[in-house]
Each structure stands twice: as C-alpha cells, then as structure tokens.
Amino acid sequence: MLDNTHPCFSPPKSNCTLWRYMDLTKLLSLLENRKLFFPRADQFEDPYEGSWSKAGVALMRDPATNGGAPPEMINQLLQAAEMQRRQIYISCWFISEHESAAMWKLYLQSPEGIAIRSDHDALVSALEASPLRARTSSVTYIDYDRTPIPFGNLFFPFLHKRLSFSHEHELRAVIWSKENINLSQVSDDALSVTVDVVPEDLIKAVHVSPTAPRWFGTLVEQLLTRYGLACPVERSGLYERPSF
Q1: DSSP state of 2
Q2: How many domains are contained in the chain?
Q3: Dihedral class, residue 212 (left if φ above 0, else alpha if ψ from -120 to 50, else beta)
Q4: pLDDT per residue as tens digits for the range 178-211
Q5: Is 8 a domain residue?
Q6: Burial class of 224 by CB neighbour count within 10 A (0 to 12, 13 to 18, 19+)
Q7: What is the pLDDT of residues 78-106, one digit of tens each?
Q8: Is 90 helix (H, G, I), strand (E, B) or coil?
Q9: 134 vs 14, 73, 129, 185, CA distance in Å?
Q10: What CA–CA distance (Å, rounded) separates 121 from 157?
C-alpha cells in the first residue's frame, strides 16, 4: 500500500519521468520474477546513508539549542539512527525528462547496459497494489557541514544526501520493516525486500546504452518480445555525430 501522507516525505506534486540504469541481468530478473528490488539502506555504498548531518549533530549536542536534552538521550538518538539503517529498504530512481550521460557512466559496468524509463504514477500504482506499506519522496541535497537535517523523525536522514550527489536527482521509494513486521515478505535479517509489479505497466520504454553494440539492442528487443512487453526499445544516440 502507498502512504504518501507522512510529513517527512515530499513526493512529486505532478507526474514525472523516472529512470533506472542497470545491466541486462537486472532487467531479466525484473521480467522473470516480476518484482521490484529494495536493498537495505546499510547495503548502499555511501557511508553517510541514513546519518544525521554534522551541523545537525552539533545542534543536538549544544545545550543552548537542544532544549536541555541530556547527553545520554542524544547518544541514544544517534544509535537509533544507525539501527534504522538495518530497517529501511529503498528503491532509487533518477528524475529527468531526458537520459543522462553521467548516469550511463556511473551505473553500468560494461557497454551492454539498459535504462528502464517509467514515471511516478506507474511506480505509485505498483506500490498501491502491494501489501507492504511504502512511500515515495524526492531527495533533498544539502551541505552536511552547514545544514542540519530536521530532528523530528528518523525518516529524515534517509531523505537527504550530500551535495556531491545532487547530480542523481533521486526519487526514493521507501519501506520501513517495522511498519510491515507482520508480513512474511519482511524478516529481521533480510538484506532486501521485493514488491510485486506488472512489468508491462511499470516499464514505459527500455533505452539501450549509447556504447552498446547493435546486436545488444536486438537482443533486448527479442527479450521483451519473449516476455510479452510491447514497450519501445530506444537505442541511445547520445554519442552519434551531428547530422547537420
């Protein structure tokens, strides 16, 4: 189920185009298993994932700004944030109306890669059909040395990232295990959870990497045909020479 009423979350006010850049095996997994993958937050490469900002922690520890909270309470709050990293599951999407040269380079390990193009409405529909409670939000990028992350809720650190990552224009779908503790899909030690999806509804187009050989694009077309997807396969012309 989707719950975008939570005050911490900032979903798009109108529909927007979403992308996921991946290799062919991840596309095959999505088509074969019909599930969207949500890794646990502590599995991400960014060591700041789910952490409070330096500026925010300084305010928490300052008696002039922390409302008289004792140091042990502050320490418990920071420890809870670390525990939360093992309870939050995130599916990351890139918000843009156009493909991104930077995203192709960042997320593909070889020339043979693809990008799924979807949109927020399609993602919302998939999450609404799931028994798992989920939410979506755009990520806010801040200077962690200067800007405090709001203290009001443990979700806030997962909806902020450092300015160095602002090129990602990220939208996140977030699942908290403690809200889904009675569902068999979530266990205390799971490194990931999945949400059932209908690929035919979620995928609006598949874009082939601009560095992929022509045979790879043909293979992607054959793969989609085999799984009954009628969405277009678009071969990126990002690095083609201008024709004018």
Answers
A1: B
A2: 1
A3: beta
A4: 887 666 566 667 899 999 999 999 999 999 999 9
A5: no
A6: buried
A7: 888 888 999 999 999 999 999 999 899 88
A8: strand
A9: 18, 29, 11, 13
A10: 25
- Quick check: is 42 in a domain? yes
Residue 242 falls inside a structural domain: no
In angstroms, what CA-CA distances link 43 with 48, 74, 110, 147, 190? 12, 25, 22, 25, 11
pLDDT at position 99: 93
Domain that holds residue 60: 17-235
Half-sphere exposure of 169 (CA within 13 A, CB side): 15
Burial class, 80, CB count within 10 angstroms (exposed 0-12 / middle 13-18 / buried 19+): exposed
125: nearest Cα among 184, 173, 192? 173
Give, in order, the Cα–Cα distances in Å from 225 to each of 47, 220, 233.
40, 9, 11
Structural domain includes residue 209: yes
